[in-house]
Amino acid sequence: xxxxxxxxxxxxxxxxxxxxxxxxxxxxxxxxxxxxxxxxxxxxxxxxxxxxxxxxxxxxxxxxxxxxxxxxxxxxxxxxxxxxxxxxxxxxxxxxxxxxxxxxxxxxxxxxxxxxxxxxxxxxxxxxxxxxxxxxxxxxxxxxxxxxxxxxxxxxxxxxxxxxxxxxxxxxxxxxxxxxxxxxxxxxxxxxxxxxxxxxxxxxxxxxxxxxxxxxxxxxxxxxxxxxxxxxxxxxxxxxxxxxxxxxxxxxxxxxxxxxxxxxxxxxxxxxxxxxxxxxxxxxxxxxxxxxxxxxxxxxxxxxxxxxxxxxxxxxxxxxxxxxxxxxxx
Amino acid sequence: xxxxxxxxxxxxxxxxxxxxxxxxxxxxxxxxxxxxxxxxxxxxxxxxxxxxxxxxxxxxxxxxxxxxxxxxxxxxxxxxxxxxxxxxxxxxxxxxxxxxxxxxxxxxxxxxxxxxxxxxxxxxxxxxxxxxxxxxxxxxxxxxxxxxxxxxxxxxxxxxxxxxxxxxxxxxxxxxxxxxxxxxxxxxxxxxxxxxxxxxxxxxxxxxxxxxxxxxxxxxxxxxxxxxxxxxxxxxxxxxxxxxxxxxxxxxxxxxxxxxxxxxxxxxxxxxxxxxxxxxxxxxxxxxxxxxxxxxxxxxxxxxx
Lengths: 330, 305
Prior knowledge:
The complex is a heterodimer. Chain A is built from 13 helices and two strands. By secondary structure, chain A is mainly alpha-helical. A two-stranded antiparallel ribbon of chain A has the order 1-2. The longest helix of chain A is centred in the N-terminal third of the chain and has 45 residues, at 24-68. By secondary structure, chain B is mostly helical. In chain B, helix 1 packs antiparallel against helix 14 (269-304), helix 3 crosses helix 14 and helix 4 packs across helix 8. The longest helix of chain B has 36 residues, at 269-304. Chain B is globular. The chains are: A mainly alpha, B mainly alpha. Chains A and B meet through helix 1, helix 3, helix 4, helix 5 and helix 6 of A and helix 1, helix 4, helix 5, helix 6 and helix 10 of B.
């Protein structure tokens, strides 16, 4: 093909050797060009990512802080201006915000803890010599690839008051129907079901991948020492899975505290973004949305985003520290 | 060009199966022990729970709301699926058909772009030497942990300045290159292409881009398949940002359109679920065709990170 042809015997040890037939200035030009290529093209190749991340990832996060110190109304731009800490002061006095914080944290705890424990168990089940191995792995991952809007709406139909499947079954066993959206406990139960349905299988697959990278001779040695399979799981698998567990805890903390689609779409009046008739399942993510795009108060919503950011950093650090300690105890 | 013939890519299978001829020993690692009946029962129950909401989506989507209230509930599909599809298409403000098209356009553009730019950057990080390479790679990985949603208020303002509110570029452009994609491609290229090959091509006077085009590109197929599928799926499924920036216009993606089916004075569950079926089917097709590769890809990404 049309590759630059260098005779086989003449392959030089150093780069950039000019072809023998080329004239001197042309060779010098080519060498300069090739040196330029070696030096700068790499930056050109990685530039798109850093550029895009800078403009649409990092800059919004920083600019968000600026917006949080301003009055920024989408519907009355003329009243915009600096307001100091007013947005933050309002946030701290806002009972709806504290309620949302309570819901966010509560939903996060009661979903993530069982979710990761279940995922560990499921991964251990999958980490055996299985027939239909691919089928089981795919099946476990099915919820993860289902669109979140679609699956949330299905659960909304299952937990619907009059014609939902859950209530049909409850009536079947003689219980009175439950208005799942009306109470704190029942709405949380429904939302936690949605979240865990989606994520348990995903984390099981991640844990499974980590389990399979554990050296096999560790188990052999443990077997020789007389450790049973439960003991092996506790003493070998779980401690060696520490990096994967830490990763899962960090990622699901960051994600779980931003819960948005489920409480939005579970509500009867999606458009109001209230998180239930009495805000019983309103999360901070949802409240930020409502403040920015229903109340049209971007400054206030930006301050709430900064607040949620700090809260996420705090909880993630605590969880990471805690996970490290659990894994460290042998 | 025979010196740079396509090297066979490394096996991407991470199944971790022991060699078939390996002598079985008493004990050994869990992955070598045959699973018992209880394991199979537990896994089958798990699979049923995983699949049930999708099945139920289909049941409700093929019924009428009158049929749904029955006690005991019907567990077999009824015959109104096509009628319900028609209702979905006819629903005002949902723009369902054009929203499907929009989702397709957005997902295809994002996927193609991610494959191209991420493989270029992944190649640079894997095989080229430049100052600050390792630091930049660490920085890139660190960006994956940033909760981007928290910048959405400011991002919305930026999109306003670009005149992209309720326009598709607002959901396309931010996704054109991803940190995960670069990272994934880098891991693949490190293993798939020997350093000597790149050096030899350099000696032969090939430019960086030519090396990418003639040596790297042809080996990318397995990695590109997995990354492409994952990118397509996550773009198709994306809800929150499209909902914020596109809602209220004709230019919505199918997930946003679903949310309009779920709101309003009266919610018709069967119609809503018929829409959900339509919004899910393309992904199910992808998943059944290439689920094995997707699982392998996710597992690989997990081990390496």
